[in-house]
Design goal:
- By secondary structure, the chain is of the alpha/beta class.
- The protein folds into two domains: 48 residues, Helicase, Ruva Protein, domain 3 (Orthogonal Bundle); 118 residues, Dna Topoisomerase Vi A Subunit, Chain: A, domain 2 (3-Layer(aba) Sandwich), CATH 3.40.1360.10.
- It is built from seven helices and six strands, in the order αααβββαβαβαβα.
- α1 packs across α2.
- The longest helix is centred in the first third of the chain and has 17 residues.
- The protein starts with a helix and ends with a helix.
Length: 197
Amino acid sequence: MPETLKRLIDIIAFLPWIGEKTAIKLAFFLLKANSAYVKNFSKILQDVQNEIIECSSCHGMTDRSNHLCKICSDETRDNSILCIVEDYLDMLSIERVGIYRWRYHVLGWSISPIQWTMPKDLTITHLFERVRSDVLIHEMILATNPNIEWEATSLYIRENIPRKNLHISRLSKGLPHAGSIEYADEITLLNAFKGRG
C-alpha cells in the first residue's frame, strides 16, 4: 500500500467512532473522488480551525466575523431562563426540539478529578459572572447528562452560585441513567424539560 494512502487511513482511523474498515473505505472514497471535491473538503477542514471561534457570551460556536453566536444575538430569546449544558452538541440537540427559546451557557466539560478537570478548567467563573450581573435571569436549568461527573458539577454550581434566590432546576429522570443529551431523541428531551424540577 502506498505510504500516503496508509497515512490517510491512519489519520481517518484516529477520528472517534471510526474503525479501521470504515477508515479504509473513506480513504479510498477520497482517493477516487473528484479533485474539486477533495480540494473543497481540504479547504473546509482548514476553515473549521481558522474561521470558527467561541461565542463570547455562551461559549458555544460562532463564525470568526461575529463575537456572538446566532442564539445569543437573537433579541427575541427569553432572557429569564439560562440553560446550562456540557458542550455545544448538547445545545444543538436541545435546539433541535424547536420549542424552547431560552439562553444557553456551555461549560465545556464536567468536573472530574479522575480526568484532572476542575472548576477552573470550565467556564463556571463566567457563568457566575453572568448570573451575578444579569438580573433578568430568574431560572437556571442544569441540562446535564445523568452521570457522576455531572452530579459533582451540578452540586458545585448549586453550592457556589452567587445569587441564592435564583431558581435552579434539573431535567427530570426521563433521560436514561448514564445517557447523553447529545443522542436523546426529541420526545425524550421534551419530556425531560417538561418534568424538570
